[in-house]
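Form 7-S
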Amino acid sequence: DMDISEDTEIEEVVFEPVEMEEEVAEEIFLIVENAPEPPGGLAGFYGYVSKNIDYPSTALRMGVSGKVFVQFVVNTDGSLTDFLVVKGIGAGCDEEAVRVLKGSPKWTPGKQRGKNVRVRMVIPIIFKIAG
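Output:
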């Protein structure tokens, strides 16, 4: 308990500013000013996919076709990581779509304010039985 009156002097407390180190997390963007791009654009990318994809034999036998949606991250160096099938069709097609994406050449990374950033993307890989 303290008794304070009008004559009581209060000491001034001085706070010195403390410099905080800014912690920068490797943020993953969904929308950026300049989107990542595969070599040769999307047409070149789908050309790469069609040349390198092997239709799974189980899917051929069962007559499975459709779109596999694969999510991944394009890193600041253009490499692709963090693959996840967000909508698949099964019969080995999901795994084949991821395999082909993992072997993809490096992309041009996305840019935000002139700086390379990590960008999460989702892309469809189409499986269609010819004939």
